[in-house]
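User: Here's a protein and a ligand (pyridoxal-5'-phosphate). What would the complex look like?
Assistant: Let me lay out the input and then the predicted complex.
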Amino acid sequence: MTDNAATANAALSYRERDIASVLHPQTNALKHLSVGPTIITGSNGVFVTDDTGKQYLDSGAGLWCASLGYHNERLAKVAYKAMSELGYFQIFRHASHKAAIDLSERLLEIAPVEMSKVLLQCSGSEANDTGVKIVWYYWNALGKPERRKIITRMGSYHGSTCVATSMTGNGAYHRSFGLPFSEFLHTDLPNHYRNALPGETEQEFSSRLADSLERMILAEGPETIAAFWADPVQGNAGALPPPAGYFEKVQAVLKKYGILFVADEVICGFGRTGEMWGCQTYDLKPDMIACAKGLSSGMQPISALLINDKIFEVLRDESNRLGAFVHGFTYAGHPVATAVALETLKIYEEMDIVAQVQSVEGTFLQNLDDLSSHPLVGATSGCGLIGGLELVMNKESKAPFPAEANLIGTIDKYAQQFGIILRVVPNRIAYSPSLIIDEAGLDEMARRTRQVLDATLNELKRFVR
Ligand SMILES: Cc1ncc(COP(=O)(O)O)c(C=O)c1O
């Protein structure tokens, strides 16, 4: 930029400069040119403040990650110290540093099932993408290169790299990108409220879905299926917990056909579900675990992929046969990110994050339940501090709002007005507040949600029958 251009830009507002320079993820690029950004400038507990001074209660901890809130002196000091001492090094070709070792060791200590090694990356997408490569490496090494197909669920989100997008079971993420890649299959969305047959119990529904998964495996050929991937609570399906018996039945099918099971704990890990891991809440026994977000309370971009001994032993021998495990990211195991993540885990331990979540879980779930009396709420479900409200146009028929009602836009408008950040995916309000939220914060979250729902109902009443 020339000096003249810099001077001209300095005269513009941040809003104008954002419009001129930033391409925002998950945003209508044309609309952004006229509506511009909401510029967040600070925070106070579970509230964030914009540049006009307006406060919003963030019901989603940013993107499911700011477990300790949006600023933290202790983590800042650790980041400063790390950057002052060793601000960057890499862990390729036998190199290492202490924070990467300490963090990996700690993750193995707290893992929900016995794990063997940790691969560090910068995002949940990279952890899942790396996981798929390792699954393929594993089967190739075992002389079964035809085991290529990855099964995930409809409604799941696993990230935004090409592979993680292919894993994602939502057409909106695929359109105009020419994805998913052909080796990615999507089995049923386990939403009992929406998809159960009349009178079908959760257990019966789970059995039907496990049967459907088995039929998919048989139709494709079990010898072509590499792995099944699942997030314990499906975030992008609207913070949707599994129906009773679901994972027990699904894991039995996977075992029957020798299919690897990977738990995507990117949003569920580190206390969110009321246990340290979603795997503990739902008794999952995965071969690999992807985690991120809460790992650093969102304060540094870091993720980890934990792999068990069965996979490590094969990978170890294959890397020896080929000369190396030829995979890695420049910022994998970054000294600042690993130091911050390690300190985050120490803070969780000191404050007993699981007990903290459990102490407010009752209020959170009760408040969701109370909202089920609202005409727009068909059902509620959740665990720990993750949960959702199923939004309907008609409680009897469970019909969702048609696209022309612009439900999400309407909710966004009133959420802005009433000072709350609400996330609607796809027909559910998904809650995942910071884990430091107290009962007063949860009550305020419910109160503001009700205000938004009332105003939305009033505006969309012509659709409500
Ligand atoms: C379950 C799940 N997996 C993976 C990801 C991708 O993580 P990231 O955005 O850090 O790449 C997300 C992001 O929300 C997620 O919810």
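Summary: The pocket of pyridoxal-5'-phosphate is lined by residues 63-64, 123-125, 128, 157-159, 231, 235, 264, 266-267, 292 (CB under 6 Å).
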